[in-house]
Amino acid sequence: MTPDAIALIVLAKAPVPGRVKTRLCPPCTPVHAAVLARAALLDTLSAAAATGPRRLVLAFDGAPAPWVPRNFAVVPQRGHGLDRRLAAAFEDVGGPALLVGMDTPQLTPALLQHAMTTLSRGCDAVLGPALDGGYWAIGLRRPDPRVFDGVPMSTASTAHLQLTRLHDLGLDVHPLPPRRDVDTYADAIAVASEAPASRFARALRAVAPMVAVA
């Protein structure tokens, strides 16, 4: 299997005030948080599209938006709970795939390509831990709902528990480099400093004068 045979899935919510990046509030307002979420999503979609010709899928929670690049197939998220939505996204693609979220706008095409190259070299799965205990990426050579079923999401031990589940299923898992998710305003500042030319960093610079940080 070549890296180009691996689909790339972006799992995301529509950047609607009050529904996204709520942990940024305060100090952000819901509108500011939505502006940052949209910028992060656009950065992620751009990085994914720049990985070369491959199947690109946006598993979206919300109404399709005109600013989504045309080379992405948009599929609705399915299931109650993040574990089931992750499983459904892999099932909808139906083959080898790498999935990332919208919380790491500092991702680069090179890092995504590294993840897919690693998956193409014979391992069953790849997992990229996040600094908050979650994970920023997971890749599977074949969909299997058992990978996600009942794994607690959005906790400080999610990545550890996910890795344990993969091992319990007998899968050969290769690690990816850790990355910081944007959850808090401090995270936003740190991530923007990693990628100062990104849409996310520009959006943060525009929002910052209106944000009251205690």
Structure description:
With 214 residues, the chain is an alpha/beta fold. It is 35% helix and 17% strand. It has a single domain, classed as Alpha-Beta Complex (Spore Coat Polysaccharide Biosynthesis Protein SpsA, Chain A). The chain has helices spanning 30-49, 82-93, 109-120, 158-168, 185-194, 199-207; strands at 7-13, 56-61, 72-76, 97-100, 125-129, 135-140, 173-175. Helix 5 crosses helix 6. The longest helix has 20 residues, at 30-49.
What is the secondary structure topology, with strand pairs?
Elements: E1 7-13, H1 30-49, E2 56-61, E3 72-76, H2 82-93, E4 97-100, H3 109-120, E5 125-129, E6 135-140, H4 158-168, E7 173-175, H5 185-194, H6 199-207
Parallel strand pairs: 1-2, 1-4, 2-3, 5-7
Antiparallel strand pairs: 4-6, 5-6
Helix pairs in contact: 1-6, 5-6
Keywords for this structure?
Spore Coat Polysaccharide Biosynthesis Protein SpsA, Chain A; 6 helices; 17% strand
State Rg.
Answer: 16 Å
Class in CATH?
Alpha Beta
Query: How many domain units?
Result: 1
**CATH topology, anyone?**
Spore Coat Polysaccharide Biosynthesis Protein SpsA, Chain A
**Mind summarizing the main beta sheet?**
7 strands, mixed
CATH superfamily annotation: Spore Coat Polysaccharide Biosynthesis Protein SpsA, Chain A
Strand order of the largest sheet: 3-2-1-4-6-5-7
Secondary structure category: alpha/beta
Inertia-based shape: globular
Quantity of strands, as a count: 7
Order of helices and strands: EHEEHEHEEHEHH
Count of helical regions: 6
Query: Mean of the pLDDT scores?
Result: 95
Strand content: 15-25%
The poorly predicted ranges are: none
